[in-house]
Protein 1
Amino acid sequence: MLNTFQQQLHAVLPTPTPEEASRQEFAKSLKHFIQQGLLPGLQPVYAGRAAPRFEKEAGRSPKDRHDIRKAMVSDNYFRHYAAVNRISQELLWDSVIDSIEREEDALRAAAAENSAKNRGELRVPENFQVPRYVSALDIHCMPGGYAGDPEDPDGVSLGVLYDRGVYLYSMGYTGPFNDDMGRSVVNYLKRKMPDFKPKRILDLGCTVGHSTLPYKELFPEAEIWGIDVGGPMVRYAHARAGAFGLDVNFAQMNAEETEFEDASFDLVVSHILLHETSGKAMPRVLEECFRVLKPGGLMIHADLPPFDLMDPFTQFILDNETYYNNEPFWGAMRDLDQVAMAKQAGFDPESVRFDTAPMAVMEYAGAGYTEDSAADVAEREFTAGEFAPGGGWEVLIAQKPA
Amino acid sequence: MPERVSVLADQLDATQRVLAKHSIDARAEIQALVLDDAALEEREARRQAMLERMFYLVRKEAAEAAGKETTESYFAALDAIAER
Ligand SMILES: C[S@@+](CC[C@H](N)C(=O)[O-])C[C@H]1O[C@@H](n2cnc3c(N)ncnc32)[C@H](O)[C@@H]1O
């Protein structure tokens, strides 16, 4: 497949110069090449030479993902793959930073102007405590991370960086608006539960609101809240929603302990939030979901499936994110029993389950999104190490007893 | 590589300056250029082809591992042919 996907630009994104655009396209092409041209070689290299070498030295065959890692880290092919992967990541963020710095003042003004168009609330408290698992690392190697500099109270440039950077990072697989996860979950709800009409919806760890906006689009009557611990993220999210003409509320809040009242939401969702929290935080987030949900309300978390559904080699590939992409909890989370954790939080045991929400990317046309290329993305087999599980997003679903 | 890139950049710069003499503002037109799907595909195909050439040797390793074409099997094959 030739990936020519293009992001839909909007009022709060910079317009890259031709040179910046070329650098950004190159970063995206390199990522594509790594996944299509280098990633598939890991399995034969492992089976053909790394595993036999391990057996010779250890006197037994590799048994789990930790053994596979030992067998692979010294292998030249793997080292090459890992190094290029890391470099592609750095190139990517670098290529975006230049256009942001060039347009910084204009972007700030555009953010203020578009934020004013959004009639939803924006809550950014003073002295907010960002949890350590977010502030300590630049996750995905994104310079500045999510929380940024607390001394820069109205900066949005990290939001811009995320918006554009994540599009390249995901190689456009989540659509021209970066919103495939939210859109897929909404589609899933509309299809599986046509009578469910949530009036108040909360999106946890919303970052810049990519996944949040489809909820407003498809449940226009509902009151929508997106919360995140990153100040620059929610400020930018509020402006971006305004740029698309949507009234959505955003707040800087911690999903472990929000300011919302008990039993005040019909639907609480998150999209790739949980793996970026921590072993201590994750059960607290589930308990908080339980608290803010009305009786009979629904909780849906879209993330990657637990390890026990995968073979050890696949686990090893996914685990790479932990080591090379600053994602400390990525591997550990997949060892946890999420279903048990949800039951523990109080959800109806009968209702707790994993399911797949098929990708919505097929709905787009234009700007590089041809029917064939979108189908190639949506109908892939699941391949560890590729961006996004082919086929669909894995969702953890649970209902609060009515 | 850097030498090649530097030469290309100079050539492009020269082209734009020559065009400017003929009253064609190439820089502005390039900035305003919108690529259609055909152009996007042509560019992407060129980039992927270049990456394939760059990573040719690395990828050969994986192909060999896949085909179990180890040095031993290569010599074994040579020996087998020589013995005939
Ligand atoms: C990968 S991003 C989520 C992407 C987003 N949901 C989307 O679909 O576009 C993870 C986000 O979770 C946020 N986050 C991490 N821990 C959090 C917490 N305890 N409460 C709220 N947000 C949190 C991070 O700041 C980051 O913005």
Protein 2
Amino acid sequence: MGEVFTAAVLVAVVASAIRLAVPLLLASLGETFGQRSGVLNLGVDGIMLLGAFAGYYAVLKTGNVWLGLLAGAIVGLFLGLASSFIAVTLKAEQGISGIGVYLFGLGMSDLLFQKLVGTPIPINTFPKVDIPILSDIPYLGPMFFQHSTVVYLAFAAIPVSTFIINRTTFGMNIRAVGEYPEAADTLGVSVAGTRWAAETIGGTLAGIAGGVLAISLGIFQQNLTNGAGFIAIALVYFGAFTPLGIMWGALLFGAINALVLELKTLEIIPRDLSNLAAMAPAIITILALAVVARRIRAPAALTKPFTRGH
Amino acid sequence: MTDRSSPILEMKGITKRFPGVLANDNVDFDVYPGEVHTLLGENGAGKSTLVKILYGLYPADEGEVLIDGEVVSLDSPTDAIEHGVGMIHQHFMLVPTLTVAENVSLGLKSSRGALTDLKAVSERILELSNEYGLDLDPSAVVWQLSVGERQRVEIIKALYRDARLLILDEPTAVLTPQEVDQLFVTLRKLTDDGRGLIFISHKLHEVLALSTRITVLRRGAVTGQIPVEGATRESLANMMVGRAVKLTPDKLPAEPGEIALKVQDLIVMGDRGVIAVDGLNLSVRRGEILGIAGVSGNGQRELAETIAGLRQSESGTIEVAGIDVTGARPRKIRDAGLAYVPEERMREGAIGDFTVWENLLLIDYSSPEYLRSGFFKFGAIKEHSQDLVDTFDIRTPSLETSCGSLSGGNIQKVIMARELSSSPTVLVASQPTRGVDIGAAEYIHRRLIDTRNELTDAEFIHAKLIEHRNACTAILMISEDLDEIFGLSDRVAVIYEGKIMGIVDPETATREEVGLMMAGITTTNA
Ligand SMILES: Nc1ncnc2c1ncn2[C@@H]1O[C@H](COP(=O)(O)OP(=O)(O)OP(=O)(O)O)[C@@H](O)[C@H]1O
Ligand SMILES: [Mg+2]
């Protein structure tokens, strides 16, 4: 046992924890925008799946990973618009409508994959970009500074999101309509418009998250996300609806995942238990989230459609 | 500021229907610069509806609105704000998690484009607050503010948008007398500037003190419009209700029985971790009303909540009908014979999303009368609810209407009906008529006194059958309204900083004496 946790193993686990955290982080940041505005989108996983397929397919056809990301983003954008229409304009029950979006994404992504691709063909993945000087630091370099550009961008999105939510009028409107839409409405803030925008950002980020997932793995398969979208939703609560909090949650999930993978590779977890072990990260994360989330106050108007005069 | 001889606002022939209710019936209403035009009317008379139409929150079914002599269409609050209309809502329209400056700047164009310009906004807020005597910290988060401070934020919000016509829907309902005085000083400054004010209140002395003109609504229609000169509380009350109203209820002398509620050396912490109730002692006997007078924030809320079992005490004991219920669960305290009408009617007293009948049933739902092997007996329930709706004159379109859509006074009647229907030994009523107008207020007072008498009768009839159920209700009434305190109480206890300053007889005590005690000054040895 002693020699299992060598420095090399530790470095590998941390580096892969960071990589694995990225799709969750992006999807979860997106969901934060929606939820802060009062809209719960349970369809994140479905959007991620379609974004993943779009990203995979675009890279398969063009070989360009950035076009792949763009494809994921566009698919996410449209599904975000569709989710907004359902939740905000049609005022659907958000606990149910999102499940519809999820099932649509799950089925549609598989159908398209079967029709357009059939057998899995590996694609290009994101190139690694070593940060000059920093990547040469022993231990820390390989952990933090030898990743692909999307990893750096995803972590940069955290302060950007915080800034948007706290320092811009758009962010202030989001917070207001998520907490007390009646008050925002009486001051002429468009509740529907703000929620549409926030929810569409959420969809777009979910689509990108799916694209990142597929392109990082270099492959697509049925139900590629394995429920990551649902964990992303739980992370929003865990992170107390703040981007920084969400980052810690995503890293926790990434770390548990990386550790389980590592233990499997080292055959510390017996082969016949490996299916069970594959579920462990999700289970552990959800349990941790459920315990922490009890203490966290959600936006007061979350899941409540708004109608003037009610 | 403007020509004062032509009206800022004219509303002509406004009609508004809600399912089953004619909320506004061909109403004409106007406001001139520099005047306070008051809307007066019983609960559900249509006051809020009229001003919400003006603020673009509801479309009118008929009629037109003119601002500065021109017909305008007010389809949203944005339109209203553009035409210089500001509104201070009956329920505060502030986002509790945002700061004062953020709340004020919501919906406005920022001078920094996409970024918020809270610095500039804060500076302007401070200017306005100096000019109008509205003390405020722009960086404070709203949920931490007192009710009075929140209201100042609302006024600043309107002034910031340079409202020339300001609507105040029951602005004083939640204020202490001192805060009301302060508010009126500010409002007079606003009219001096030539702004027009629409004022809604149930408190007749406030209406008389502030108004220039008064329009009275009854069941949606205008029943009178008079200048304040020559108006009296009685004349206004009569116009509102449509018959002569007695503002001070009649009551027979109390015949106090044994002690039903006994509070001893009670110490309770407040929300902010400071002592709210500080070694308080009191007892209420069956068949009497003990009024608790005091300025809000002196431990009244914590006292009531602790008696009802909604808050834990640090030390001391509470007995209901001789049973020690200190620290017991609310259900157990109810079983001991306590009924509770809370101060926060919408948050604690009723469930807004539930229907009227569900709210009426809330505490009795598991009684075999209404429940058979897990299923509601709808026949019995409907009958019981309809009974209560009739006896308490609850104005609701139907039993299935959600409670939250009723007017404030009717919600209170639902709560009173439910609490009194359980024939409690002790009733704790906090601010029973706050925000409720005199028509309805008169009714609620009558019930409080009736109950005492009815139960005195019940006691008389049942005395030989049930021995420990032979006494009448002990009522602890907490109120900031001295009219209510003097009109109803058999004894008046004054609370100050969590202690009872003294107990006086309302027949012999003066208001000045009680007022001084409310400020912590004792004249006699208490
Ligand atoms: N959104 C609504 N839907 C249905 N009915 C409504 C609605 N708003 C008000 N009403 C009804 O219209 C009538 C007038 O209500 P309104 O709120 O204008 O009365 P009010 O004079 O302001 O009363 P209060 O003094 O209790 O505030 C009431 O019968 C009320 O139940
Ligand atoms: Mg009203």
